[in-house]
Design brief:
3-stranded antiparallel sheet; structural constituent of ribosome; Ribosomal_uS8_sf; ribonucleoprotein; alpha+beta; mitochondrion
Length: 166
């Protein structure tokens, strides 16, 4: 898991939402895919499509089946594979708020279940601030995948704290 690449993706998403773009691409890795799918499940982004260096067709972004043949991933083209993200806006404001890295390559922050319960209830812990507003989210990498903090409390698992959305 490369947290330095994840920090680049998070700063890219912050810049894209400030620029009010509707479509952007990030490098295709397992960590990025899992985080983007978690963001999509929570309603922060609209679509996640795997593709190449050029944007996918509009019908693929809408989730309709493609009549074209999808280019298979090979050793020669694996470095050019991208994740294309469709961003959401409501009343001309981005749904995806300010993202911030919690764990860094030099300082990895893990949270056990009692700490996560306190954070979800709005209390501070030594390394984490409590979730105080309804739109705030905290994403954690667990052995069951990347989940939001409230979901981790429900499923009774802790893990590495990745990022926070305000």
């Amino acid at each position: 898991m490369s947290l330095s690449n994840l920090s680049h993706v998070i700063s890219h998403l912050n810049n894209v939402t400030k620029a009010r773009l509707g479509l952007t691409s990030i490098p295709n890795t397992k960590l990025h895919l899992k985080l983007c799918l978690a963001l999509q499940n929570d309603g922060f982004i609209s679509t996640v499509v795997r593709g190449g260096p050029t944007p996918p067709a509009p019908h693929e972004l809408l989730g309709h089946p493609s009549s074209q043949n999808i280019e298979p991933v090979t050793q020669a083209n694996v470095a050019t594979r991208r994740l294309w993200l469709g961003l959401k806006y409501w009343r001309s404001e981005p749904v995806l708020g300010k993202m911030k890295m919690i764990s860094t390559p030099k300082r990895r922050v893990t949270a056990k279940l009692p700490d996560l319960r306190r954070v979800v209830q709005g209390h501070n812990t030594p390394y984490l601030e409590g979730l105080r507003s309804p739109g705030e989210s905290l994403y954690i990498s667990t052995d069951k995948g990347i989940m939001e903090a409230r979901e981790c409390v429900e499923k009774k698992s802790g893990g590495l704290v990745l990022c926070r959305i305000k």
